[in-house]
Structure formats: structure tokens, C-alpha cells
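Bumping with the actual sequence this time:
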Amino acid sequence: MVEKKFKNLDEQLEILKYKGLVIQDESFAKKILLRENYFFINGYRYPFFISNSNKKYIEGTSFEELYSLFLFDRAFRNIIFKNLLIIENNLKSITSYQLSKKYGYRERDYLKNKNFTSKPEKQRQVNDLIKKMKRQIRVNGQQHTATQHYVSNYGYIPMWILVKVLSFGIVSEMFTVLKKEDQQEICEIYRITRDEMITYLPILANYRNLCAHEDIVYDNRTQRCIDDTIYHQILKIEKENGEYCYGKNDLFALIIIMKQVLDYEDFLNMTLELDRTISNLAYNLKTISIDKIMNLMGFPANWTELATIERSVDINE
């Protein structure tokens, strides 16, 4: 195994220049590499390579162009993250409302095994989940302002307060072990099926974590594909061998999910922000076209039309 040794800024620039990247302003490039990290900037190099086998930069590719893709992904990621937090809060609010209404507002009432699925193969998961939630009550009971208030003044923490300190992952897992009728009640509010929600939640939680940790998002692929939706059909997304080419396990699949779980206005505003970000990148690209990046994202050319499709012509029709 070849040992990776530390490289100073001058050495980092030499590596980039050796691979054919044009460094027009070395002081600027050094500043960016120092502040943003060579490894992370270099993670955006692949679209600018001559080919998959020839890992040299396309002639004329500049550091500024490489950096523009980095900045694009950051801006795109921040817009996505902001709206994923809205989705997370909505899910927590709706779930806690439905369960509190049915099972009570004290943890000794809503954290009973009988309130969850009775499937034998799920009982270990149910027990583990309840332990996680009780642990959050112990840990945050005296640390989080809201939980501390309820513990101090009432002696219990209602679910609508507890969910504020639960991760998106735990809330997503909780949905998978709820009773079927409770899952369906929640899904009716979103106007999606139970199976769709079970598919969507881990994808949403995964992207939430990618965004929170500033991982590369624009060309991310998920292990699980979403089912075909009416949006694939309305947008006339291209097919190959009977399968849609876009919107299955790419970034556009996430956008399709968000279309279904965000309010109309929130999704419209997100679309406008994302479109401006894409236009800005298109302006900054010189050696490759925006189409190449859009293809890596899984975005069809008419993707913005998704924002104007009314939910009245949605999935269940």
C-alpha cells in the first residue's frame, strides 16, 4: 500500500498542474486549497477529465472552473438541506400529533410495546427503538430547554417535545415499526402510500446526513430506487430498456420525493432557488457544458416543470 504523505500548498498546485489544470492565479488557488481542503476540491475533478481512462483535465480547464463546481454543489446542498429540515420538522409534528392523540402524551403511555407493530420479526427492533427514545429522554431531560421545562414543571416529556431531540433517523425508524393503521393515517396527510413512505424515509435521512456533513451531493446515487411515479410520466422522462433513465436513484429522485412531501409553495420556492444555482454554474463552465452536470444529477431538461404540477393529478390517479 502506497503511503499518502503530506503535501504543502505548492506541491498540491504542482499535482493539479501536472494533470493539466490551468492555474491562472496561484495566490487565489492556494487560499482556496488552504480554506477548503485539497481533498474536497479535488473530489469534483471527474467531470473535467478527458475520459474515464484518461485522467487528465480537458485542455483549458481552469482551477476557477473546478472551484465553481465545488461552490455549485455547496449552494445546491444548502438549499436541499434547508428544505429537508422543513420535511423533518413536518414529519415529527405530524407523527407526534397522531400518536399523542391515540396513545397519550406521557412517555409511560406512548412508549409501550403494544403501541407498535405486533409482528414477531419486528419485536427486537421495537424494543431497541423504545430504548433509544428513553435514552434521549434521560440524556436531554435536563439539557434541552424544552425537555427541561416539561420535566421540571410537569414531570414528563410529551411526544411533541421529545421529537425535537430525536434524530431524523430515529423518527424514520419509528415509522417503520408503527402499527399499519397508524402508518396509513400519517400517509393520508401526505397523500402517498405506506410503501412509498417506507422507501422515501431512509433516502431523505441519508441526504440529510450527506448535506449536514458537506459530502458531495450532485452526483450521489442511492442503493434503493424509488418506484415510477406520475411525475416520470408527465415529464416524459426518457426510457431505456423499459426503465426511466432519470429520477430513480439519483439526485432528481430526491427532488421527486420532496415534491410529494413538501407544501406546494415550499417546493416552488426551492425549485426557483435551485434553478438560479444551476444557471450560475452554466455561466461559469467553459470546457464542459451544463448538460454534462445535469446528466450526472439525473435532471431532465424540463425538470422545473415539476414545480407547477398540481398534487390533484398525483400518484393515486
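The C-alpha cells above came from a reply further down the thread. The chain is about 60% helix and 0% strand.
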